[in-house]
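Hello,

I think I submitted the N-(iminomethyl)-L-glutamic acid job twice by accident. Can you confirm which output corresponds to this input? Input:
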Amino acid sequence: MSTDTPSGEPLQERVWRNARLACMVRGAADIGLIARGAILVRGERIAFAGDERDLPPGGPASRESIDCEGRLITPGLIDCHTHLIHAGHRAHEFEQRLRGVSYQEIAETGGGILSTVRATRAATTAQLLTESLPRLDALLAEGVTTIEVKSGYGLELGAERRMLEAARELGRLRPVQVHTTFLGAHAVPPETANDADGSLDEVARNMLPTLASEGLVDSVDGFCERIAFSPAQIARVFAVAAALGIRVRLHADQFSNSGGARVAAAHAALSADHLEFTDEPGVVALARAGTVAVLLPGAFYFLRERNPPPVELLRRHGVGMAVATDCNPGTSPLTSLLLALNMAATQFGLTVAECLAGATREAARALGMQRDIGTLEAGKYADLAIWNVEDPAELVYRMGFNPLHARIWRGR
Ligand code: NIG
Ligand code: FE
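Support: Only one job matched these inputs. Its output is below.
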């Protein structure tokens, strides 16, 4: 039954059997649970996922068989919104905020994003990696097999490049797929503090085309907010991304209803993220555009926000919801996707099935990678997380406990 590769070597065939499968296929009831399932993998891809009785036959000689002893298998988890690469931390700002200073006030007085920009500009690629790898390892230990990583703490060509190169390097140092996002429109850099439009000229005319031509940009993001950029300014950057054939995503409506969801939808964004202040017309626009809502409960919790995203409207209008850590030093120093799921349930009211879809199928859509990852289906990459849990809900219910048994990336 084993197939040959073009080089004539037999393709490795492995089967994980005696497992419960949370297939997460769209349209299936709930999480698409199969009580006694098996997954057959050829090379890097799933050849079969389903009831063990339907497993295609193969001789024991050609196939390695792994008995999962009834454990639960989900698709490998996907963290679709992180600022994982950065230097330093902002514990001092956390203490300021505990004394009552707001995130916006800190940002307006030169702290916030700009304090991480200073630290990140001063760091070499090697230093960025040394600081960021422990964060990545924490995520991988919980079954993450794909991660999105943004730039946006460089805000000048060289430092943005170093961030994106470091992000790409993560994928060579660890068994994980890295999706890179250029976030040049994250904040106005200190050198052009009074000239947001001028800084965007540099982002749109120089940085984005240059970094894209170097193969460092899988998608483009921006921060649409009163303390950052307006919808019209974001639209300029998105127009350049479109001309380069690169999909976009947006930090939208995090602190105010600033038209972020609508500008994201107008540019057929893969995702619109945060959305705490998005109104119904914004939700309708996202639904029409097929844009995924990425919910970031870590930032909501850490900033002690009061206004949750409009989950009921997102549901009613059929907008897919993903959940991510937003791992960053200012608003979400969170390196546990499982804890983000727990927060999405407790703070935003997502169901367990929505949380699990949010870290798998919907997160894959938010990255435009749904053909390759996000569900347990034949043809997709064999990215799996195998869990020591009795009830799938335990993945969302526990806080600060890691029940991962094994993590498989591309069949290994
Ligand atoms: O996703 N909102 C903008 N960007 C980040 C925060 C960045 C920072 O404070 O360093 C976020 O919350
Ligand atoms: Fe973010």
